[in-house]
Amino acid sequence: MATKPVKLLGFWDSPYVNRVQFALNLKSIDHEFIEENILSKSELLLRSNPVQKKIPVLIHGDEPICESLNIVQYIDEVWTDGPSILPSHPRDRAMSRFWAAYIDEKWLPLLWEVYEAKEEDSRTTLLEKVREGLVLLEAAFVKCSKGKAFFGGDSIGYLDIALGGCLGWLKGIEKLASVKLLDETKTPALLGWAETFCSNEAAKNVVPEPEKLNKCLKEFQAQAAAATK
Amino acid sequence: MEETGGVKLLGFWVSPFAQRVKWALKLKGVQYEYIEEDIYNKSPLLSKLNPVYGMVPVLVHNGKPISESIIILEYIDEVWKQAPLLPQDPYERAQARFWAKFAEEKVRQSVWEAMCSSGEEKQKAVKSAVEAFEEFEKELKRRGTKFFGGETIGFVDIVAGCISYQLAVHEEVGSIKILDSSRFPAISEWIKNFLNHPLINEGLPQKDQMFAYFSKRSKEIASRKMSHKTA
Description:
The complex is a heterodimer.
Chain A: E1 6-10, H1 15-26, E2 32-35, H2 43-48, E3 57-60, E4 63-66, H3 68-78, H4 90-116, H5 120-145, H6 158-164, H7 167-177, H8 188-199, H9 210-228
Parallel strand pairs in A: 1-2
Antiparallel strand pairs in A: 1-3, 3-4
Chain B: E1 7-11, H1 16-27, E2 33-36, H2 44-49, E3 58-61, E4 64-67, H3 69-79, H4 90-116, H5 119-143, H6 155-160, H7 162-174, H8 185-196, H9 198-201, H10 207-230
Parallel strand pairs in B: 1-2
Antiparallel strand pairs in B: 1-3, 3-4
């Protein structure tokens, strides 16, 4: 089953796509990356994810799997000889899933809202909420890592991947708004974690460079605005 | 890996999220102590066990809390292996997780929004709900089985199951019509089969009590929205 071809439909600036890339790299899975233009979706994307029409989509053989965290779990369950992504104890797995869901439902959407914010006031309020979320995640990191380098312990795990995918946008915002979101006083452990994560083999050629990302997102926003006129 | 430590469930009588957990525990024959929480007057216990959200359900197993209904379902399935909720095959599991998320975010959520909103917002929400139902109907038809999980109740059935006993009440409270049995025959049949299971039907909240509760909630949400608009 693990020898069928693997394709990943996505775009390099997406946190959701980055997550899948980390997982594929961690497990050393050969794959073809098919770049999608989300303002002009390909037939393949529409056929593979007819319900949501979103990236990322992993196509394994001819079977499509959608939703980044679903894909990461799928990869973990199929490629069992690489390092494990989810922890082995059900309670630790529940904890990882809880915080990943928190990131997706409450925190990551704030980052996109910062990019979309038209006024300084709304941006300031959003940045404050981002920081509050990071303080919660700092506590979660301290608890999950138990003094080790990653949420997953000695090696990158599910929650590292879930939050690691957000580092591109987080650093992009720090550059764009000239602010520090991860800082030495409020989130020292996460600051250290981010550096370790970004220099890891699985992540280093995946996390987008802030200036390149911001330029790309600005162009995307302009194109999206023009498309709706 | 079966653990025989104590199981407690903190819930609220009308919460569809807590109901999911009750169904899972019952289907697996797991004994548990149920603790009714007043979510409008939260106990120190609830705040301690779920400090991030302060919401039900919370499952406490061997003294450790787990929150968020769908995450609790996966935990239950991993600890108690009998009557599995998720399929064994990784691709089928990924499909089940996808459709469970869809059932929660697109199906249940859009019905709730349609019930609580008015005017143009309500029309938009009803349209979203109908579209979500169409996707769900298509998938149920494609599978052609009694339940989403096959011939027995599974993960997606439990997550989507709240519509089986609450949708009609939401429709009445919100003066909306979403489930037309001629338009959605597969969903209508699925609801019938689901509610026919004795463990599913047992102990569900009474219709008139749900109607009173959701009417009140709906009015509170509407007046909150109005005060935000005029503030």
